[in-house]
Predict the structure.
Amino acid sequence: MQDSARVVIIGGGIIGCSTAYHLTKMGWEDVVILEKGELTSGSTWHAAGLVGQLRGERNITRMLQYSVSLYEQLEAETGLATGWKKSGCLHLASTKERMYELKKGATTARSFGLSRPTVYQALSAFEQGGLVALEPQKPGPRRAHKLNEEVVNFLEDTRADTPHLGIAELVVAVEEQFGLSVHPRSIERALVRRKKKRR
Ligand SMILES: Cc1cc2nc3c(=O)[nH]c(=O)nc-3n(C[C@H](O)[C@H](O)[C@H](O)COP(=O)(O)OP(=O)(O)OC[C@H]3O[C@@H](n4cnc5c(N)ncnc54)[C@H](O)[C@@H]3O)c2cc1C
């Protein structure tokens, strides 16, 4: 084994592996992980894999949003299936106070572009349209109309030149370059689709 490296990361859990992944993605070379057991054999091995996105702090929410977009694209990027499954969850309230908290959370979630329909919305849909109204709506067109070839090429080039840019920054870049307001998720999906197409 080599006896020196530019970066030595001690511990190959999710934090160590993520640090190595991001450093190398930013172009750093000679990055080594030292793991006393097996990679991800610590707490990471026990984790259920739940990734809630909405948190009390803006930066943590943004980081979790980034995590989700990363997990969504890792397979396309590496060819290795992570087992990532994106599912929703149900929040229940049995007191007025908890309901107030959930509604407040729903409003905050919307401001982050997360969809978190409240029970009231589900109830009102049920009252108006019965069980059928609770079924997921038909998906829209597969590709956002705004994200044409030119815009996706621009996104890819920008990502390649400045890999550290997050989705939020790409939203701003698209707005500046094309005057388009695009939802962050649309950008994430467009980039993943393009990667899959290339494989
Ligand atoms: C039962 C359980 C369920 C969980 N579920 C979730 C969940 O659903 N969602 C979620 O987000 N989080 C969950 N967590 C929390 C999550 O697992 C941890 O926050 C996360 O895995 C911590 O990652 P880490 O890289 O910091 O630590 P670890 O995964 O513990 O990695 C540390 C690594 O360092 C190595 N190491 C330690 N000392 C040395 C040394 N001196 N030299 C070399 N190597 C060393 C260890 O062997 C280990 O592999 C759960 C945790 C548990 C226990």
Observations:
- The longest helix spans residues 58-78.
- The pocket of flavin-adenine dinucleotide is lined by residues 10-16, 34-37, 41-44, 46-51 (CB under 6 Å).
- The chain has four domains: 1-48, 51-89, 92-137, 144-199.
